[in-house]
Amino acid sequence: MSKGPVIQGDYRPVALQRVGEAKLLIQWSDGHRSEYAWRWLRENCPCATCREHRVTTTSAQQSGITTAGSGGKISLAVVHAGEVAGSPYQAVSVTPVGRYAYKIVWADGHDTGIYSFELLRQLCQCSDCRSLSAWANQGDA
């Protein structure tokens, strides 16, 4: 049986598997098996540029402000469309950073996000973690 998300503890990835163009699976040392859509990982990129963009966009949306030409959509590209080939949601590589994280390089050239093991566990989209997240959010309502 798969354990739910572990936010702190002694766990590490023991296997990574790319499933087509859409998904990444990580098997953890504590037995948990995490699932991630590449798009979800990119939309939650932890780099400073992406975090700032999410905060700015969220603040603008809450204030009813939209950026001209944005159509209310968040742009994930660090460079403008047409400057490089590739989708911002297509991972080119996943490489270890020390013993605590992975760096994902995206097809559009973005490569500054360092995904800590803790963050990856928080972002897990497996059915167990989604159920726990939904249950926890009910208490916030």
Molecular structure report:
With 141 residues, the protein is an alpha+beta fold. The chain is 28% helix and 24% strand. It has a domain of 95 residues: NE0471 N-terminal domain-like (2-Layer Sandwich). A 3-stranded antiparallel sheet has the order 1-2-3. Strands 4-5-6 form a 3-stranded antiparallel sheet. The N terminus is likely disordered.
Structure, briefly:
The protein is α+β, with helices and mostly antiparallel strands and 141 residues long.
Topology of this structure?
Layout: E1 13-19, E2 23-28, E3 33-37, H1 38-43, H2 48-63, E4 91-97, E5 101-106, E6 114-116, H3 117-122, H4 127-138
Antiparallel strand pairs: 1-2, 2-3, 4-5, 5-6
Rg over CA atoms: 16 Å
The residue ranges in which pLDDT falls below 50 over 5 or more consecutive positions are 1-7, 66-74, 77-83
Total helices: the number is 4
Strand percent estimate: 15-25%
**CATH level 1 class label of one domain:** Alpha Beta
CATH topology of one domain: NE0471 N-terminal domain-like
Please count the beta strands (DSSP E, at least 2 residues each). Answer: 6
Shape: globular
- Across the major sheet, the strand order is 1-2-3
